[in-house]
Automatic annotation (TrEMBL):
Record's subcellular location: Endoplasmic reticulum membrane
PANTHER family per UniProt: ENDOPLASMIC RETICULUM MANNOSYL-OLIGOSACCHARIDE 1,2-ALPHA-MANNOSIDASE (PTHR11742:SF55), MANNOSYL-OLIGOSACCHARIDE ALPHA-1,2-MANNOSIDASE-RELATED (PTHR11742)
GO cellular component, one term: endoplasmic reticulum membrane
Native source organism of the sequence: Menura novaehollandiae (superb lyrebird)
Identification of the protein by name: alpha-1,2-Mannosidase
Alphabetical UniProt keywords: Calcium, Disulfide bond, Endoplasmic reticulum, Glycosidase, Hydrolase, Membrane, Metal-binding, Signal-anchor, Transmembrane, Transmembrane helix
Lineage top rank: taxon: Eukaryota
Family designation: Belongs to the glycosyl hydrolase 47 family.
Transmembrane annotation, as ranges: 56-76
C-alpha cells in the first residue's frame, strides 16, 4: 500500500513498492533516501510503534540468540584448543620419550607418574573428536576431561600389557641376537652361558613379586621358612624397641640414630615384600605414609642415604606398584641434589636434607671414590621414572669424569677424589675393599641397567678386572685359596676385607651377561675363598678383615685374624655372592654354605628378646661379645639374599629383569633399544 503523504505529494511511482507503514517512509518524498540516519530513524519509529509485548518478545529472542552465540563460540574455542594441544603434545612426546630412551628405555613401564604426565602420552588417550559446536551441551570442559579419566584406567591396563609385550619381545629378540659368552669373546647364542633354568629346577609356582608374567607359585621350602622366621625375629626386636628409628640395639632394648629416618624400616621394605610378609609390610607402609618426613635439619651421607633410602623406596615402588614410595623417592632424591654443587661436580659426602646445603667431611675436601660412583643406579632410575633428567645428568657426569682421570693402575682406582679439583688423591693405594668396592660393582651394573650400550662403563669394568688379576690376586697356603689382596705403593698386602666378597657375585653376573669365560672361573675360586673366611673361623662367621698366609706354616690355616679385625657386622657380601653363584650354576653346595652361615648367625648373633646383633669376636664361640647393634643391611640385604639363595624360583627377582643396587634393592633393567 502507498502512504497518504506520498499520494498528496504527487503521482505514485508504481515502480516502487514500500513495505513501510508511516507517511514519511513513502518512497518518492525527496527521492529515494537510503542513508544510515534515515534507516536508523525509520527503525526507531517502527520499534516505537510496537506493543510492549512485541518488544519484550523480540528482546527475549535477541538475548537468547546472543547466549547461544557465546556458548557456541566457547565450545569451538575449546575444541580447537584441544586439537591444537593434542598435536603439541604429540610433538612433545616424540621429543621427550626418545630423549629419555636415549639412554634408558624401560622393561617396566615408567609407571604411574600419577596423573601429571598422562597428557604427555596422547597416543594412549581415547579422546574423541569434539562434537560440532551446535550439538554440544553443558560446559565444554567436561567433554574434554571425561576421556582423561577413562584414559587413566586404560593406561593402567595398557601398562601391564605393554610390560608383558616387552618381555615377550625381549625374549624373542634374545634368541636372535649374537651374545658374548663367559666362555670367551663375542659368540652366537648356541655357544652362550647355559641358561640357569636348565640347571635349576623350573619354578612350579609364581612368586608373589612379578605377578604379571608368573606361572605357578613356587612353594616356599624349609630353608626359606627359616629365613622368614629369622626375619620375623629381627623385626620383632625392631618393632618392640626401635620402631621408626634407624637401628635396633637389641641388648639394651633401645635404638641408635644415624640420620633419624627409620633406616632399618626403609631398608627392610622390599625384603618384606619378597618374603611375602604382608602384615609387616602394611604396618611399615603406614609409617612411611604418616611419619617419614625428609624436611629435617639433618646431615646425611649422600651414598648411604642413596643406596638405602632412595634405593629402598624405588625398589619397593617397583615391587608393590604403590606410588607412595615413588613420591617419597622423589622427595629424598631432590633433597640430595645439593651435594652435586661443587667446583668439580664430584659430589660432597654430606647433605643437609632440610636446609639444602652440602659439604665434605670436616677434615678434608675429598670424597670417597666408591661413594661418588655408587649412587648412579638409583639416580638414573629416578630420572627414568620422573622424566626429570637432572638426576641422571648429575651422576652420569661423575662417571664420565672418572672415566677420563689419570691415576688409575690398570683400571684400578685410588680411594679418594677431591671435590674441588676433581682429581684422585692419596694415589698409589688400590683395594677392592672399603672405599673402592662398589665402584667396580656399579660399572658393571650400570652397563646392565642401561641395556649394555654404555661402552665406557664396560671398558672401565673389563680393564679393572684385568687390573685385579694382574696386581691383586694371590694364593694362600696351605689350601691355595685365591684371594684379592691390596696394593700400597707397589707393595702387595695379603689383607682382604669381607666387603670384597661382593666380587664373585659381580663377576658371575658379568659372565651371565656375556662377559669373558674366565670371569666365571675366577668367581668360582673367589667364592670358595669367601666361604673359607667363615668355615676356618671358630664361630663359623667371617671377621671384618682377614690376612691370608702366603707361606705354609705348621698348624696355621690360610686365614689369620688380627684382634682389631675380628668383629662381624652381619654383613651380606658372601651370601650375596652365594646367591648369584647358585642362580647361575645351580650347584647346591652354594645353598648348603649359605645354610651353614644362617645357622651360625642364629647360634652366635641372635638375641632372645628380639633382633640380631653384631659381635666383636668371631673367634670365641663361648663369648662372641655382642656389640648391641643390628645394622639395617641385615634386613635389607643379608636375609634377603639368604631367602633368594634358598629359592629355586629363577623368577623370584629374575636377574634378566632386575639389577640389585649395592644395598640389595632390585631395580629394573631398561629394555635394550
Ligand atoms: C652395605 O651398606 C652395602 O652393601 C655397601 O655396599 C657396603 N656396606 C654395607 C654392607 O656390608
Amino acid at each position: 500500500m502507498y502512504s497518504g503523504a506520498a499520494a498528496a505529494a504527487g503521482p505514485p511511482r508504481r515502480d516502487f513498492i514500500s513495505v513501510t507503514l508511516g507517511p514519511e517512509e513513502v518512497v518518492g518524498v525527496g527521492g529515494y533516501n537510503n542513508s544510515k540516519a534515515w534507516r536508523r530513524r525509520s527503525c526507531w519509529r517502527k520499534w516505537k510503534q510496537l506493543s510492549r509485548l512485541q518488544r519484550s518478545v523480540i528482546l527475549f529472542l535477541f538475548a537468547f540468540l546472543a547466549v547461544c552465540g557465546v556458548i557456541s563460540y566457547t565450545s569451538m574455542g575449546e575444541a580447537w584448543k584441544s586439537i591444537t594441544n593434542k598435536s603439541l603434545d604429540d610433538q612433545r612426546t616424540e621429543q621427550e620419550i626418545p630423549g629419555l630412551k636415549l639412554a634408558n628405555p624401560a622393561v617396566l613401564p615408567a609407571p604411574q607418574k600419577a596423573d601429571a604426565n598422562r597428557g604427555d602420552y596422547p597416543e594412549l588417550s581415547p579422546q574423541k573428536p569434539p562434537k560440532p559446536p551446535h550439538v554440544r551441551r553443558g560446559p565444554s570442559n567436561l567433554q574434554i576431561k571425561a576421556p582423561r579419566r577413562d584414559m587413566r584406567l586404560k593406561t593402567r591396563h595398557d601398562t601391564i600389557r605393554t610390560a608383558e609385550e616387552l618381555v615377550q619381545a625381549d625374549k624373542a629378540e634374545k634368541t636372535e641376537k649374537s651374545i658374548i659368552s663367559w666362555r670367551g669373546a663375542v659368540i652366537e647364542p648356541d655357544q652362550s652361558t647355559e641358561p640357569p633354568s636348565s640347571k635349576i629346577k623350573e619354578p612350579k609356582k609364581p612368586s608373589s613379586v612379578e605377578a604379571e608374567d608368573q606361572k605357578e607359585p613356587v612353594p616356599i621350602n624349609e630353608r626359606q621358612l627359616a629365613v622368614i622366621e629369622a626375619f620375623r625375629h629381627a623385626w620383632k626386636g625392631y618393632k618392640d624397641f626401635a620402631w621408626g628409628h634407624d637401628e635396633l640395639k637389641p641388648l639394651s632394648k633401645s635404638y641408635s640414630e644415624w640420620f633419624g629416618l627409620g633406616l632399618t624400616l626403609i631398608d627392610a621394605l622390599d625384603t618384606m615384600w619378597i618374603l611375602g610378609l604382608k602384615e609387616e609390610f602394611e604396618e611399615a607402609r603406614k609409617w612411611v605414609a604418616n611419619d617419614l618426613v625428609f624436611d629435617k635439619n639433618v646431615d646425611v651421607n649422600l651414598f648411604e642415604s642413596t643406596i638405602r633410602i632412595l634405593g629402598g623406596l624405588l625398589s619397593t615402588y617397583h615391587l608393590s606398584g604403590d606410588s607412595l614410595f615413588l613420591e617419597k623417592a622423589k622427595d629424598i632424591g631432590n633433597r640430595l641434589m645439593p651435594a652435586f654443587k661443587t667446583p668439580s661436580k664430584i659430589p660432597y659426602s654430606d647433605v643437609n636434607i632440610g636446609r639444602g646445603t652440602a659439604h665434605p667431611p670436616r677434615w678434608t675436601s675429598d670424597s670417597t671414590v666408591a661413594e661418588v660412583t655408587s649412587i648412579q643406579l638409583e639416580f638414573r632410575e629416578l630420572s627414568r621414572l620422573t622424566g626429570d633428567e637432572k638426576f641422571q645428568k648429575a651422576v652420569d657426569e661423575v662417571m664420565k669424569h672418572v672415566h677420563t682421570l689419570s691415576g688409575k693402575n690398570d683400571g684400578l682406582v685410588p680411594m679418594f677424589i677431591n671435590t674441588n679439583s676433581g682429581q684422585f688423591t692419596h694415589l698409589g693405594v688400590y683395594t677392592l675393599g672399603a672405599r673402592a668396592d662398589s665402584y667396580y660393582e656399579y660399572l658393571l651394573k650400570q652397563w646392565i641397567q642401561g641395556g649394555k650400550k654404555e661402552n665406557e662403563l664396560l671398558e672401565d669394568y673389563m680393564r679393572a678386572i684385568e687390573g685385579v688379576k694382574k696386581h691383586l690376586l694371590q694364593r694362600s697356603e696351605p689350601k691355595k685359596l685365591t684371594f684379592v689382596g691390596e696394593l700400597a705403593h707397589g707393595h702387595f698386602s695379603a689383607k682382604m676385607d669381607h666387603l670384597v666378597c661382593f666380587l664373585p657375585g659381580t663377576l658371575a653376573l658379568g659372565a651371565h651377561n656375556g662377559l669373558a669365560a674366565d670371569h666365571m672361573k675366577l668367581a668360582e675360586t673367589l667364592i670358595e675363598t669367601c666361604y673359607q673366611m667363615y668355615a676356618q673361623v671358630e664361630t663359623g662367621l667371617s671377621p671384618e678383615i682377614v690376612h691370608f698366609n702366603l707361606h705354609a706354616q705348621k698348624g696355621h690355616k690360610d686365614v689369620e685374624i688380627k684382634p682389631a679385625d675380628r668383629h662381624n657386622l652381619l654383613r651380606p657380601e658372601t651370601v650375596e655372592s652365594l646367591f648369584y653363584m647358585y642362580r647361575f650354576t645351580g650347584d647346591k653346595k652354594y645353598q648348603d654354605w649359605g645354610w651353614e652361615i644362617l645357622q651360625n648367625f642364629n647360634r652366635y648373633t641372635r638375641v632372645p628378646t628380639g633382633g640380631y646383633t653384631s659381635i666383636n669376636n668371631v673367634q670365641n664361640p663361648s663369648n662372641p661379645e655382642p656389640r648391641d647393634k643390628m645394622e639395617s643391611f641385615f634386613l635389607g640385604e643379608t636375609l634377603k639374599y639368604m631367602f633368594l639363595l634358598f629359592s629355586d624360583d629363577i623368577d623370584l627377582i629374575n636377574l634378566d629383569k632386575y639389577v640389585f643396587n649395592t644395598e640389595a634393592h632390585p631395580l629394573p633393567i631398561w629394555v635394550p633399544a
